[in-house]
Amino acid sequence: MFQAATPTGDRQQVYESALTQLKGLIEGEPNSVANLANASALLNFVMQDINWAGFYLYDGKELVLGPFQGLPACIRIPLGRGVCGTSAQQRETIVVEDVHAFAGHIACDSATNSEIVVPIVQDGRLIGVLDIDSPLRGRFDETDKTFLEAFVEILVSSVKFS
Question: Is residue 3 part of a domain?
Fold first, then answer.
């Protein structure tokens, strides 16, 4: 049985440990919802100064709320709208230092001040996005971007999304 290890060390060490833990969490589990639920819980456990960690899944028309940790969130997001919809449409990671300065930002939680969104693409097909929010302005940097892109890559290479 998998057991999460308490994060220790500097941020880079914590993130490397989290990638190893993610592999252990999803190994052999075919259900994508269960894997995304555990993945969001792991992110919430290891990342400092965040108030939301979760997934929006693409249903062929728009992004729909998936497994997450945090306060209730917006249920549907059109492609091209807000940070999540823009990241999904462009298929690029977006780091936003101040969400209040992002044109078209969708405010699901008024405590959020910064955000990072990583698109999830498998075999050229948009699956959804990983969305992490923080109450701190400027919370996310290149280290977070590299870690979260590697995190998503593990999911994409290990989980079969239908």
Answer: no
